[in-house]
Please model this.
Amino acid sequence: MSNTSDGRVNRWTIAVSGVIIQIALGAVYAWSVFRIPLTKTFGWTISEVTLAFTLAILTLGFASFVGGLWMRRSGPRIVAMTAGVLYGGGVMLASLSGGHLYWLYFSYGILGGFGIGLGYIVPVATLVKWFPDKRGMMTGIAVAGFGAGALISAPIATHLIISTGVMRTFAILGAVYFVAVMIPAFFMQDPPPDYRPQGWQPSPAQQKERPAKTYTLREAMRTWQWYALWMLLFLNTSAGISIISQAAPMAREVTGVTATAAAELVGVIAIANGAGRLLWAWFAGLVGGRWVFLTMLTVQAILFFLLPMVQSFSVFSVLCFMVLLCCGGGFGAMLALSADYFGAENVSSIYGSMLTAWAFAGVLGPTLIARIRQSSGRYSDALYLIAAIMLCSAVIPLLVRPPHARRDPIVMRRAA
Model:
């Protein structure tokens, strides 16, 4: 494509396609609607059923890394199409898991999770290249689609479970996910080399934030900044997922609210998770991702410190909403930050590698808060610990700076 009006039209078509893919993939966050039907139908424990979701998130993070590397070699379209096959097929195969827990783990957790990871990296990495003039906004929209997936799929899945049963619901949703990913996948492609929107020039602030060189994944991982950014995403996500995993029972314990009201909190924080991805990514485009992370981590330290003291369910819900705004915001801000620090050309592989932090956070956050709750008998100890971790984590964005070519040993050796 050229830098003409046709290019502008096509890039918006690609943007819409990417958001549709993300909405379909984000349905994984609606897993909680399957928990009770599966435990009641097959006698599985809550922990056994929840492990399928944990496996999906764990696999997702590593699959995003693989997808980023694959995109670099083969382009986004084939990666997105493969994601549709694995994700849709994995959910459909889960319909055959009745009475066989291992099959649920393999189909939904491994195959489905791998498809989600491959598909997740495609829109976010592609839109960064097509929208250098709207990087913060478009990366936010892309990752917000993932956060919004549960809002759309949860009520649909609930209705299907009631009317057709849980196993048939897997089959129907798997077919829908397959179509919802495969059709938009045909529109996914990279822009031509050195693409710029017509009439756009980087602002002085954007020129200042541009990296001194374009990094490959190997070069990026040989800088300390890559590890600092990975740790930022890991810590920020661990805090948010800990709330996602325990929101309803924690609300009942802390505020004494009914089970029905506590369940409604799950939908509230799902909205926050999606909205935060857009809001903070947009803000990162204005002030820079480093300052966004400093703000989010500091705010979360205060929020987690206040949560055990709250007795009002309304106030508790507001605090949880703000935590999930920050959790979702980490994904949008980190995508923009990766492009700013290492260049947009290889952002698919570099950002994809950082999403392994998501995989580890999906294990650490829920495990930490659940085990402390079990050993101490209350959530307050875990919440205070997370508050302290967030406060200490706020030091990282104060220290991290973009790598500079004149200080990069790789570049210095090449120059020599």
About this structure: Confidence is low (pLDDT under 50) at residues 1-9, 405-416.
